[in-house]
Amino acid sequence: MNSSEGQPATDPWGRVAEDGTVYVRTREGERAVGQWPDGEPAEALAFFKKRYDTLAFEVALLEQRVKAGNLAPEDATASVKQVRGAIGEAQAVGDLGGLNTRLDVLTGTIAQRREQRKLDRARKVAEAKVSKEQIAAEAETLASGSDWRAGANRLRELLDAWKVLPRLDKRVDDALWHRFSSARTTYTRRRKAHFAELNERRDAERMVKEKLVKAAEELSSSTEWGPTAGKYRDLMRRWKAAGPAPKALDDQMWARFRAAQDTFFDARDAANAELDREFAANAQQKEALLAEAEALVPVTDIKAAKRAFRGVSERWDATGEVPRDRTKELEGRMRKVEQAIRGVEDDQWRRSNPEALARAVDTSAQLESSISQLQDKHDKAVAAGNPKKADELTAAIDTRKSWLAQTRKALDEFSG
Prior knowledge:
Layout (H helix, E strand, L loop, with lengths): L9 E2 L2 E3 L4 E6 L2 E7 L5 H28 L4 H16 L7 H49 L3 H17 L5 H50 L5 H17 L5 H48 L7 H17 L5 H29 L1 H30 L3 H29 L1
Antiparallel strand pairs: 1-2, 2-3, 3-4
């Protein structure tokens, strides 16, 4: 039968009977899929082929989603079953057997995907087991350490890593979680205890530093420059030996401590600057006094020189201190003048000392007598032919003559 447009009323996959019944050809034989009593056969076939095209599109879409991995094997299997049921009851004309064949192939692909997913799951579980064992081991290492800042951060990172790992067999997973959780608890308790102890120690250090600050502030107005500077050095040593207080408070106390120090040392520096000016003026006065004193040397009149030097010395002592770096120089020059005058005075005393003169005269006489006696013995030794004895006596005579020369020199000084 032909349509009004000349199209055949039959198709490789279906036909329209004279009574308008539409049949689809399958491997099992023909099956009626609908009625088209009033229309053209070609139109009937076209209508039912469109239904087939819809089914073919669903199969193609399912194939695409399975190949792309967008469906889990369970969902893909359910979709295949649903589409296969629709094909079995389809009121459509087309290669329905071909669609089922494509679904059979797709079922095999899904089975492979399911097996691969099982393998992947087993691999991921094995990898997760290794990862969780490593996490638990690292957490236990951290729990026994004392890295309180980085350790806490690392444990949080480990917890985040644990959460994204797949669960294992319940017994194994629970055992590893217990290790990890126990390590975190141990670390947290030790960390809290550490910081509690640290806070307690910092409170104690705060009290120590508050006392040091108070002592520094009490000393800031002192004018006992030397002793107070020593006390500040001791306070600084004790401050450095003390541990840290809470940081904000520690910074405040340090600012107060340094302010007290600065107040004292600024005042000391100002006082020292004033003293430096005063000492410089004193040095100028002493240089003028030195000019007077040094003019007394060489000494020509010992009495006048002593009298003048005494006056200079009195004014010298009345003049205040000089800069430390000038003290040795100025005192040395003054001492040199004093020694020159005393030397002249001592020389005169030696010359006028009657006891010394008597001792020198007596010594001279004794030496002359000794030399005379030794000379007699020497002459006798020579006469007796005893050169060894004569040489010994000669040496003794020469020694006493040397002593006699010194004694006579002293007598000459007295006479002078």
